[in-house]
Amino acid sequence: MGILRLSHVEVRVPDLELATAYYTEVLGLIETAREADRVFLKCWDEHQHHSVILRFAPTYGLEHMGFKVEHEDDLAVAESLVESMGSTVKRFSPGELAPGHGAAVRFDTPSGHVMELVFGMQQVGNMLPRMNPAPRPQSLVGIAPPRVDHIFLTSENVDESTEFFQRFGFRLTEQILARDGHQLATFLERSHTPHDIAFVTGPNGGLHHFAFWLDDWNEVRTAADTLAYHGVPIDVGPTRHGVTRGYTLYFFDPVGNRNEVFTGGYWVDPDFETITWTEEQMGRAIFYYEGQVNDRFFTVHS
Amino acid sequence: MGILRLAHVDLRVPDLDLATAYYTEVVGMNLVERDEDTVYLKCWDEADHHSVRLRYASRNGLDQISFKVEEEDDLAVLERRVEDYGFPVKRVSKGEEVGQGESIRFETPSGQLMELVHDVEKVGTLLGKLNPSPMPVGLPGIAPPRLDHTLVTAEEVGEACRFYRDVLGFRLTEQLLDGNGHQLGVWLERSGTPHDLAVVVGPNGGFHHMAFWLDDWDHIRRAADILAYNGIELDAGPTRHGITRGNTIYFFDPLGIRNEVFTGGYAVDPDFPTITWTEDQFGRGLFYWEGEVNTRFLRMHT
């Protein structure tokens, strides 16, 4: 019932060919469909038609994010919830928004991001058979994460964004509080992991990063090798988060959108008691080993 | 709504002190509470009162398997469904059982006693909720963060599987079929992982193993070192499963109850298409690297 997990991320890219080459050859995603101005990609272990959409645009940043819901009825429930808050919501039939896409609703969030909920996206299968499958395919290129994991956005009013997402059933796992008690950053989940979406103080509409799951710390190390080999600029890591406990590596795609590879974390029950970080521990909260955060991490977003 | 995850496994042991020493010093669980004939244990990252209960008895065995439900109403809904299936359900009131509130209990078609519980006493993890470090330092033994899943035996795996799916709402991620299409083994989940409960062919009421989660393959290696140091008998591994894709070691507690440490797997949506293994690939299904299963693994259970 309700929202299950992050389904897909659509990012703007001013050079569609360059971005496609990076996402397929360095990250190792698989191209599932292509139009004149959009390329659809998925990770190898994902069954659904796409989890990343690259859209040709004169600038970079987030076009929209999609979350998967469990039942078709969840779309109608979300629709009335958005309307009850006085916002407009648009309904789309299967296939209307994109090839292979499911039925969907879209609306704006208070932080100026376009949020979509989707049900019934076409299942194209992972790269393994359903009978006697090997644990992983052998022909993968690049980092080859099995799936997308979470998205991290900037918001001028993190308290307001958090409350908005909690109304859709997101649960607050962790928060970083300023000395005056307002939320500097929040981490919210639906999938029993530390986060499916997170917010940090910054301009409305901003994309801080989106993250791909890796199976363990050793794969984070291998990802760093792959990125360095291709000359991809690394932002931070490999290191560890205090918040979420995850192991991480941040880097930029060739048009300036920040990516992350992430592993670790912990299981979250619905009755999980929120973890609070205080502002003076912000360094350890974000990068536990270093205890401090570089300026670029705070100031650069797309 | 419904069952969330495995809550606790309650075991009978003929030597309570020996079993307690093993589970606290080798596995590295925390002793939460102890009375004359019962010991309550939890893993370091579990906030609930206990995940393993040891009860003194003249021979080893399974008392019951307990699953946690998301909402209190789930108990009434599932009680009715189990009764409609034709199995009597016993209500256990708050206060009758240490560390938890009201629960329901019933016998399953595979002959194990099962409990469903909502209201569990929170004792908290070792880390606290304010600026917590990602892990406690100085824990003895393997120190898994949490319990993961359990595997039981049944004479009629197909019947057991129908009960767990149709009555309790488990989803079938993987199955092992014999040449006639009968289920020899089924892997079932509620938590978005490859399995919370698995059933393989064997005597009704049998208990094959319980598994603890580890964060990655390197921790599996470290667990093997700790087990060997303590002279614990390994059953199989470190190796990899074809089924679930997990990395694993099996070993026995000093009373002969099989334990596992497990990591890996994959994310499971409710619309996950079931994976099927054929009998001729049984070896790779269970132990992917070796391609064969030792007789002890198939025959020995509690």
Short description:
Chain A is of the alpha/beta class and 302 residues long. Chain A is 19% helix and 36% strand.
- For the residues shown, what is the average pLDDT of chain A? 96
Q: Summarize the largest interface: chains and residue counts.
A: A-B, 47 and 48 residues
Proportion of strand residues of chain B: 35-45%
Q: Give the SSE string of chain B.
A: EHEEEEHEEEEHEEEEHEEEEHH
N→C terminal distance of chain B: 32 Å
Helix content of chain A: 10-25%
Q: Given the helix and strand composition of chain A, which structural class is it?
A: alpha/beta
The major sheet of chain B is characterized as:
9 strands, mixed
Instruction: Tell me about the largest β-sheet of chain A.
Output: 9 strands, mixed
General description of the model:
The complex is a heterodimer of chains A (302) and B (302). With 302 residues, chain A is α/β, with parallel strands linked by helices. Chain A has 6 helices and 17 strands. In chain A, 51% of the residues are buried. The mean pLDDT of chain A is 96. In chain B, 19% of the residues lie in helices and 35% in strands. In chain B, the strands form 2 sheets. In chain B, strands 14-15-16-13-9-12-11-10-17 form a 9-stranded mixed beta sheet. The mean pLDDT of chain B is 96.
